[in-house]
């Protein structure tokens, strides 16, 4: 399932102790100018990402609207994602495949629990139904890596990694159509570099979707759906 805690603040390592030499005035001026430029770039980047928070600027949101035709909307707790305006503030270039390690009902309950601190955008059931719990606009806490959260759409699949029977024909087909549509919407290449398992996210301790997830079969279905979708 998704990460066990919400986005972590980026931490910058402190430099080692100085040599005792005092920098010259020129070095201070150059360093100060570089720092000012760097600060300006960071400030500009943050402003670009936060522009939509200005009253009246945020993209229209229709309650209950879904990004994938045929999906059912069931809202996750707002504590388990961060409102954003993707792809304008964060480019989307990944789809991350998860397994719930439990039933559909238990996954929905967890994602609606503000104390869970994690949720994915979608859940695909064994019978093929798709539930959307977070808009693709927003950053879901699902990958266990802040950068990957910001750049990806997370899809959970009902079942258990150690049970091959969890991954049904209906699930593969429905999930493949969902992933193909996401890839078309954001111009994501349909390959294993951009459609990945949770286990492949840097820094994660998760193993899903596990050895029984048939990647060859899945990617064949995704490519086929990607070619044929209108």
Mean pLDDT: 84
- Low-confidence segments, given as residue ranges, are 4-23, 25-30, 33-37
Q: What is the β-strand count? A: 8
Largest sheet: 6 strands, mixed
Class inferred from helices and paired strands: alpha/beta
Features of the shown structure:
single chain, 230 residues, alpha/beta, six-stranded mixed β-sheet, two-stranded antiparallel sheet
Description of the structure:
By secondary structure, this protein is an alpha/beta fold. 31% of the residues lie in helices and 11% in strands. It has a 6-stranded mixed beta sheet with strand order 1-5-4-7-3-8, with helices on both faces. Strands 2-6 form a two-stranded antiparallel sheet. A hairpin with a 5-residue loop joins strand 4 and strand 5. Helix 4 crosses helix 5. The chain is globular, with a radius of gyration of 21 Å. The model is unreliable at 4-23, 25-30 and 33-37 (pLDDT under 50).
Outline of the structure:
With 230 residues, the chain is of the alpha/beta class.
What order do the helices and strands come in, and which of them pair?
Layout: H1 25-50, E1 72-73, E2 81-82, E3 94-97, H2 104-111, E4 122-124, E5 130-132, E6 139-140, H3 146-151, E7 152-157, H4 169-186, E8 195-197, H5 215-228
Parallel strand pairs: 1-5, 3-7, 3-8, 4-7
Antiparallel strand pairs: 2-6, 4-5
Helix pairs in contact: 4-5
